[in-house]
């Protein structure tokens, strides 16, 4: 039975809404009066003005003299990049550490505990400076780069990775490979346990990943490996140390909290589920992957959403180590050059709000997809 709100409750809601609108109008009036006293017009037309600064790291072309609107695009992409890297890395590491916390091995269990306690009880900004100054800034010069395998090199100027250049057919095949990868999870959801032996994916589940790999390989024209030339590294793609430090700092800090979410979610699954799966002859690894984790996932998603949103907001800490993300450029350089403090702050709030709300909408949709439904 759905209980309808009373007339008094409805009246209270309208009064609260009127109060919020009145407070917003009052704040807007104060801001307008302040701008009028300074003879400063309000508007976002300054985004079409030329920007007299350089952005050292960008995913799209940028030159000194491009518009502030172009700078906004570059900074948003930089913010999305470090957020996406950190979310994926924190999720995988948090899942691993959370499982380690439940290990029967004393050493593994306590190593995970020490990691969680050390990360959660020290300031995130301190950790960020530690990785940037005490770790990355002490690396050797390019001439003494540390090989990481697979052609990757690490030195004081950042991380150098091999890159694949598109061949003649790459413009067509690479988008198709990306589409195949995106479609893979939806195909996996349609698969069933085959042969009654608990095999999670049938043969068709491997079709799209293999197809994506084949399309990607066919679209490669050549592979550029980073190599020492003179006093610098040529070839490949350079990941600046600021991006490396920020990604590592955000990932480790969030992973410590995600690990506790994973541990609590696994413990929420009734013990009888594990005992029943073991009695069927499944190994402990199969029980965890096929019985426990799928049920624990329904408990994980809501707190994971909060952690993902915290990662996105914490990307603004990149300003402390000069990573050119949204806050560092627009709350610093653009604000000082244009003198549009209110407009820059409103843009920052609007962009972060849009990114976080989009993340929340997606996670809520996924939460409804995996939730148990009753008829």
How are the elements arranged and paired?
Elements: H1 7-37, H2 68-100, H3 106-120, H4 124-135, E1 146-149, E2 152-155, E3 158-161, E4 163-166, H5 170-190, H6 207-218, E5 220-224, E6 227-229, E7 232-234, E8 237-239, H7 241-268, H8 271-279, H9 284-314, H10 326-338, H11 341-370
Antiparallel strand pairs: 1-2, 2-3, 3-8, 4-5, 6-7
Helix pairs in contact: 2-7, 2-10, 3-7, 4-7, 5-6, 7-9, 8-9, 9-11, 10-11
Give short descriptive properties of this protein.
375 residues; 11 helices; 8 strands; alpha+beta; MetI-like fold; four-stranded antiparallel β-sheet; globular
Walk me through the structure.
This protein is an alpha+beta fold. Among the domains are: 68-136 and 238-370, Orthogonal Bundle (MetI-like fold); 173-220, no CATH class. The chain is 63% helix and 8% strand. The protein has eleven helices and eight strands. The protein has helices at residues 7-37, 68-100, 106-120, 124-135, 170-190, 207-218, 241-268, 271-279, 284-314, 326-338, 341-370, and strands spanning 146-149, 152-155, 158-161, 163-166, 220-224, 227-229, 232-234, 237-239. The strands form three sheets. It has a four-stranded antiparallel sheet. The protein has a two-stranded antiparallel ribbon with strand order 4-5. Strand 1 (146-149) and strand 2 (152-155) form a beta hairpin. It is globular. The two termini are 16 Å apart. Residues 192-201 have low confidence and may be disordered.
